[in-house]
């Protein structure tokens, strides 16, 4: 195989029980000033334990260093790979896109490398990477694959609510002022990823159940449609997941939905609580059929 798709480990592909050909560029997670390699010596389950049970300094993340990206690309070159399509999490929340793009330039004489900013996060990045892989295997040009991902990205909507905002504030994923106001008044903002790839608060709600209700209402008309694919992003809190799924069933009549794990990178940034509801509306990725519904 002379073509391959890479994606950053923020996609959470490590934790999805599916078969795929996509290879990962692994980001870093820092806990107590100790650096871990995502998916190598730390995963979502272990990170949950550290965040919930062990006293620690603020957890934060960082991109894969340039020299490691260069080693990955050099290895692909030695394997005879000629075309590489790389998807990254949003360049608005990570320097991964910039670092990978710069390193890719040094391989331009030997490989055709396309670095694609998904302008999104987590499982959406995974689904876009899987879509890219599907069309790579079908022989599509990488520019055409990018156009396909652009269309999918436009159809994707994500809402997320966190029960504990301290991680988002410390990691500057929402503004300091907004975070202070939210904590002061016990407000649980509903967050979304903008078209530009920024994480922005869109509604201020005082209780997590009300935040969940808001999320369900926003997508209530779309979820039952046959031309949509919806999924829940779970941070590993079964109590929150079950409450949300029951609320979803009561409001929309949808009695099965895919539940995908939040990546360890996202967990480190927003903390061990919270939940997301995401939907592709009107344009569904090929990989949707790979995920079981509950």
TrEMBL record:
InterPro entries: DegV, DegV_C, DegV_domain_contain. It comes from the Bacteria. It holds the Pfam family DegV. Keywords: Lipid-binding. One of its GO terms (molecular function) is lipid binding. The keyword Transport does not apply. The keyword NADP does not apply. This is DegV domain-containing protein.
């Amino acid at each position: 195989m002379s073509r391959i798709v890479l994606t950053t480990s923020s996609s959470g592909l490590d934790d999805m029980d599916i078969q795929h050909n996509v290879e990962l560029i692994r980001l870093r997670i820092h806990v107590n000033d100790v650096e871990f390699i995502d998916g190598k010596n730390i995963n979502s389950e272990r990170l949950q334990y550290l965040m919930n049970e062990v006293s620690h300094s603020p957890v934060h993340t960082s991109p894969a260093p340039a020299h490691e990206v260069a080693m990955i690309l050099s290895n692909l070159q030695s394997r005879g790979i000629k075309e590489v399509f790389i998807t990254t999490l949003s360049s608005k929340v990570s320097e991964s896109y910039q670092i990978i793009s710069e390193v890719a330039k040094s391989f331009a004489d030997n490989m055709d490398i396309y670095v694609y900013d998904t302008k999104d996060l987590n499982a959406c990045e995974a689904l876009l990477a899987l879509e890219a892989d599907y069309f790579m295997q079908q022989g599509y040009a990488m520019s055409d694959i990018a156009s396909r991902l652009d269309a999918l990205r436009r159809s994707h909507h994500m809402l997320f609510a966190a029960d504990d905002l301290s991680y988002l504030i410390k990691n500057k994923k929402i503004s300091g002022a907004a975070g202070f106001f939210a904590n002061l008044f016990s407000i649980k903002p509903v967050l979304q990823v903008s078209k530009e790839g920024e994480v922005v608060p869109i509604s201020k709600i005082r209780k997590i159940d009300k935040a969940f209700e808001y999320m369900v209402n926003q997508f209530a008309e779309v979820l039952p449609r046959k031309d949509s694919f919806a999924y829940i992003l779970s941070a590993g809190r079964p109590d929150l997941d079950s409450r949300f799924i029951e609320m979803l069933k009561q409001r929309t009549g949808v009695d099965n939905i895919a539940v995908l794990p939040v990546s360890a990178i996202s967990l480190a940034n927003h903390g061990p609580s919270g939940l997301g509801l995401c939907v592709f509306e009107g344009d569904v990725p090929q990989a949707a059929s790979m995920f079981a519904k509950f």
